[in-house]
Amino acid sequence: MLHKRFFACSPLLLTLLLALGFASTSHAQLGIGRPRGQQLLDGIVVKVDNQIVLRSDVENIYAQEVARAEGKPIPPDLKCKILQSLVLNKLMLAKAETDSVTVTDQQVNGELDRRMAYFIQQIGSEKKLEEMYNKPLKALKDDLRPQVQEQLVQQKMQETISGKVNVTPREVKAYFDRVPKDSLPYFSTEVEVGQIVIPAQVSDKNKQATIAKLNDIRAQILAGASFEEMAKKYSEDPGSAVEGGYLGFFKRRELVPEYEAASMKLEPGQMSPIVESQFGFHLIQFIERKGDSYSTRHILLKPATGSADASEAAKKLERLRRQILSDSISFAKAAKDNSSDKNSSGNGGLLANRQDGGSKLPLDKLDPAIFFTIDTMKVGHITPPLPYRTDDGKDAMRILYLKSNTPPHQANLQDDYQKIAAAALTEKKNKALDAWFVKNRGSVYLEVAPEYAQCKVLDVE
């Protein structure tokens, strides 16, 4: 169990982080309501200018904290701390409105797609998710959209307030030295794992088959078929297909160049010829211009890949593997120059720990596909090319590299600098957030329900 002072957020930041999706993924946190048969407490408990906090907001997060405590004592003022941080969220929204801080439709749609994809993965299928909530996926996304937009605005405000805060090595050491030695956390086995990913190349035959299919769809639309219905039936963009291919409004340079260039040639209602981008082949229907933004819908088809298409990627990876093992090139250099995984290629191919940004990953939290691959590997070894599916669903091949394997140990600066630095940075950012809260709390109208009158929601520790 990690010591609270070492990694936990300040009470003021607690529900901000919960709301932005950094903790467990419960129904309430994902923001799509509750399954059928479950009832929420409701009613307004706080007003912050024109923003409100519901009783259910507090109760949902409290229930999550109780579950996370696993039977350990709950602080008696936990609900007050939760309410306090929710007030901070609402204050940031109020100030964002005043300061014209906004987020784009693209950002909102991207986060909606991410949450839905994750939740579908957890539930097992899109159909099971829809049955659980007795709603189609589009309705679930519509319900979630306002909350996601608010959360992204809060996140942007938080970045504005504390995004430039950093810590020096001296501050990291000072932070570590303040932690009582008997309270230092004990870490389980951690590993550093690198990967080089090369996507399977699509054959000309499969490209031509995809183009032919899309041309047939285009012909049906020109003959009178509904673009929206054809998008729902055929489009392979899961985020927009359920909405008839609708992507929302975007400004210039927010979409890939090929898509934007084709869109800008169209008038409202017109449909493009087939457009190729890094995502596949598109048919685009222009909807309208609004100021410097424009909206479109599209049908996306992705050419299929097969074992033959992946063979060239495997051959290239095998050549790289031999070069690395013979010390003619480093793994980091090979990853930087060749890997298509942008999240790791700039970090020498090493996978990042999402909790602290470092490269050491808890062995028991690894993706099972990686865990069972490296379980019997020795440090320094590299796997032969292995089949892989990228985050955006493309077939690829990859090699995995076990850089280090750190046995269980008590936290120390040498082995755990990245974790300690991340904790020190969080503390410093919390202080910046607290200072902003103190500075701006008098600029809003606040009304608290009698049941929470004892909570000093405008105070900080």
UniProtKB/TrEMBL annotation:
Residues 335-357 are annotated as: Disordered. SUPFAM superfamilies: FKBP-like (SSF54534), Triger factor/SurA peptide-binding domain-like (SSF109998). It comes from the Bacteria. Residues 1-28 form the signal peptide. The keyword Signal applies. Its EC number is 5.2.1.8. Residues 188-288, 291-401 form the PpiC domain. It holds the Pfam family Rotamase. Keywords: Chaperone, Isomerase, Periplasm, Rotamase, Signal. Transmembrane segments: none annotated. One of its GO terms (molecular function) is peptidyl-prolyl cis-trans isomerase activity. This is Peptidylprolyl isomerase.
